[in-house]
Design brief:
By secondary structure, the chain is an alpha+beta fold. Helix content is about 65%, strand content about 10%. A five-stranded antiparallel sheet has the order 3-4-5-2-6, sandwiched between helices. Strand 10 and strand 11 form a beta hairpin. The radius of gyration is 36 Å and the shape is elongated.
């Protein structure tokens, strides 16, 4: 064949080859564009349908209480989420108070302190005066001389606001005593020149209480508003020397946690992506491999987001911090897929072993995260949904899209050389697997005997707020008289039954400690039965002449005691309504009230509460800690169950001997991880167990891949990349300031490090192909 003929034939082949390549590239690009267009359309539709909101409020993560208590929480305490509080102390507190009050007014933040004036209270309760007798007043009625001394003493107190406001309405002063005694029990603050004042431990504070509109509690608005308030406070501190201003409220926790979550999301996500890109480029040395790995992760993130916005109306920012872990798991599929395709052992697509291993990997990891779906914390449920949906999306991309790029994938010689070196080390360790495993089991047993692990289920593990903000909260709880109080909820079929139940309960507590304090609504609204008893007592004292001094001094005859009785309906239509509804609500099916109690030990109070139906001690932190403890026990059981399921899976897929070996390795990994984390943290939490559950899911992946693809260079390379990426991503989480995220990240990082070095021991016949 002449040179001219060869040239002519080549000229015909080259255009065909170029056309083929162009068609292949066009097909790949079309598939990629179609894939992500579909995901984006699904996400847009899901977002439009659910219209989710984002939250950084740590309290929204907490599990719900008992159904009745949860309802009572919503009725009475929901408004506290909108409350902010400021306290001023020092020589310039009045000037700072006035300036800050003006700033709040200018920014449409209205201070709230809606307790009625003494005159309003006198007007409200005067029609029922002789049915409303305070305990102090009733004691004075026991003897005529005692009452006369009390009566004259009250009249001689110049400027007594209670007497001056009620004397014209009730010359017996029973109404004055009723209002004064109840205010002393329920009111810690006084008004001085229009400023709310409280003295505590020798320091006088000026206090501002305000409620924010719900729209100000969104993530971005919370950050902006809290920043503006703190900036104004700092300006006042600079303007006025010797001034102390303290601020507290959910707003500031939300803003602080939101800023922290955004920072950690951007930092951890950014550093993780850069590290993963570097790893991928080192192994594959082509830009398209970086794009394919990125597309796999992007598919996972969009798929997880679609499921989450469909299932949850409110998404917590802490969920997104945890969800960064999806990057480290989803990219494993890309690593295993691309390394298998790059070897080109099959002209089209994956080897049979890799296909099987990818599917088993998806199933096992999904089963691990399914345990989160029943968690009492919304955060964990959201993470579970996000990761499961994201993994399915990443798996589909890996199986359906990546094979189209097979011809463009290659492995760098340096990465294969590293794999060969690793294989030599793994083969040597594999030959010593029995003594290694026996030694590790003996060492772990000894370590557990020397330092047993302990658990900490404190709800504070969820809190990422600064110590400064927590001290502010404590200070304001002391000012509000709520720091050392205990809250009790009561339920009954009617308002009268509820009030009688409360009075009987308080009588029993009085027997335990006559000086205990409470703010029960029955002080202001006695039961009808008690009101009748009061009227009878007053009438008896009047008939005995005990009250004659009132008629002699005022020259007015005492009115009849046959007055109407005070009812819930009457009080609910008066100026007292806001305070009544803040403590007692009558619904068609039940009546509910709550009260705070101090001066009674927790054991005594629990003992009294347990004797009664429809009375519950409300201790949210303790209840949540108990729920976390229960869920921790559930997770421990899940770990055991996961081990059993793994044994069944390995026995079915491989053999009983291999299954026992692999479960032994899993046990060594989990136990060593728990001990190391316990030694570092001082105790373990349920977030360490969540990490252990994920480690088992990932460890099963490694064991499956090793048993199917053996200690082959491409397999060792893929698993090494997976382990390195996972340790990097989860290692980032261990730098978090939130204790829960730190515990989770530390556990997974330590666990993956252990399983990476121990999983090669599971290969019984290292060089035999599946």
């Amino acid at each position: 064949m002449s040179t001219q003929e060869i040239t002519q034939k080549l000229s015909l082949l080259i255009p065909n080859k170029i056309m083929f390549l162009n068609n292949a590239v066009a097909k790949r690009i079309t598939v990629i564009v179609g894939w992500f267009s579909s995901l984006i359309l699904l996400f847009a539709a899901a977002f439009w349908l659910s219209k989710p909101t984002f939250s950084a409020d740590m309290f929204s993560l907490l599990p719900k209480s008992h159904s009745q208590i949860a309802h009572a929480e919503d009725v009475f305490f929901q408004q506290n989420a909108n409350r902010i509080m400021f306290s001023f102390a020092g020589h310039n507190k009045n000037k700072a108070f006035d300036d800050f009050q003006k700033w709040l007014d200018d920014n449409a933040i209205k201070s709230t302190f809606n307790f009625p004036s003494v005159n309003d209270l006198a007007q409200t309760f005067s029609p029922f005066k002789h049915a409303l007798l305070s305990d102090t007043y009733k004691q004075t009625l026991s003897k005529k001389t005692t009452f006369e001394h009390y009566y004259l003493e009250q009249l001689n107190q110049l400027g007594n606001p209670f007497v001056s406001a009620t004397l014209s309405k009730d010359t017996s002063l029973s109404l004055a005593a009723f209002i004064e005694d109840n205010l002393k029990q329920s009111q810690l603050f006084t008004l001085e020149q229009g400023r709310l004042t409280r003295r505590l431990k020798g320091v006088e504070y000026r206090v501002i209480l305000a409620n924010l509109a719900p729209e100000n509690l969104g993530v971005n608005k919370s950050i902006d508003l809290a920043g503006s308030i703190i900036k104004q406070i700092n300006l006042l501190n600079e303007t006025y020397p010797d001034l102390s201003i303290t601020y507290s409220g959910v707003l500031f926790h939300t803003a602080e946690n939101a800023k922290q979550a955004k920072y950690e999301m951007s930092l951890f996500g950014g550093i993780s992506l850069l590290a993963l890109i570097a790893m991928v480029f080192w192994v594959f040395r082509r830009l398209n491999s970086i794009l394919l790995a990125s597309f796999t992760v992007l598919s996972a993130l969009i798929g997880g987001a679609i499921a989450m916005v469909l299932l949850f109306n409110t998404i917590h920012l802490l969920t997104l911090v945890f969800a960064v872990t999806l990057i480290g798991i989803a990219i494993d599929y890309a690593f295993h897929g691309m390394t298998d395709l790059a070897k080109k052992e099959h002209e089209k697509g994956y080897s049979k072993g890799t296909q099987s291993a990818l599917l088993l990997s998806l199933i096992t990891t999904t089963l691990g995260y399914c345990c989160l779906l029943g968690a009492p914390l919304t955060l964990l449920s959201q993470v579970g949904v996000f990761v499961i949906a994201g993994l399915v999306s990443a798996w589909l991309f890996t199986v359906l899209v990546l094979p189209l790029w097979q011809s463009t994938l290659t492995l760098s010689p340096s990465s294969l050389l590293m794999s060969q070196k690793l294989i030599k080390g793994f083969l040597y360790c594999n030959s010593l697997k029995k003594p290694i495993l026996i030694t590790l089991l003996a060492l772990i047993s000894a370590l557990f005997l020397i330092k047993p692990i302990s658990f900490n289920d404190d709800v504070k593990l969820l809190n990422a707020s600064s110590e400064h903000l927590m001290l502010n909260e404590k200070k304001h709880l002391l000012l509000l008289g709520q720091w050392d109080t205990q809250i009790v909820f009561m339920f009954a079929d009617s308002d009268e039954a509820l009030l009688q139940k409360q009075e009987q309960f308080l009588t029993r507590l009085t027997q335990l400690n006559p000086n205990f304090k409470n703010n029960s609504i029955s002080h202001w609204l006695p039961s009808l039965q008690k009101q009748r008893d009061n009227q009878a007592l007053f009438e008896q004292a009047k008939n005995k002449g005990t009250l004659d001094i009132a008629e002699r001094v005022t020259g007015q005859a005492l009115t009849s005691t046959k007055a109407p009785l005070l009812t819930y309906e009457t009080l609910a239509t008066s100026t007292f309504k806001p305070l009544l509804l803040s403590q007692m609500v009558v619904e068609p099916s039940q009546s509910i009230t709550w009260m705070s109690i101090s001066g009674i030990s927790s054991d005594q109070l629990i003992n009294e509460v347990e004797k009664n139906n429809g009375i519950y001690l409300y201790n949210k932190p303790k209840q949540i800690s108990t729920l976390l403890s229960d869920y921790r026990e559930y997770l421990l059981l899940s770990l055991v169950l996961a081990g059993f399921i793994s044994w069944l899976l390995f026995s079915w897929r491989f053999s009983i001997k291999i299954a026992l070996l692999q479960v032994t390795i899993l046990s060594v990994v989990v136990l060593s991880m728990l001990w190391v984390c316990n030694a570092i943290q001082g105790s373990l939490s349920l977030f360490n167990l969540l990490g252990a559950l994920l480690v088992i899911a990932l460890a099963i992946d490694y064991l499956v891949f090793y048993q199917i693809n053996k200690l082959e260079p491409k397999n060792v390379l893929a698993i090494s990349l997976s382990a390195a990426s996972s340790m990097w991503v989860f290692g980032m989480l261990s730098a978090s300031d939130t204790p829960a995220i730190f515990s989770f990240g530390l556990s997974v990082m330590v666990g993956i490090l252990a399983i990476y070095f121990l999983s090669p021991l599971s290969v019984l016949k290292p060089q035999k192909e599946q």
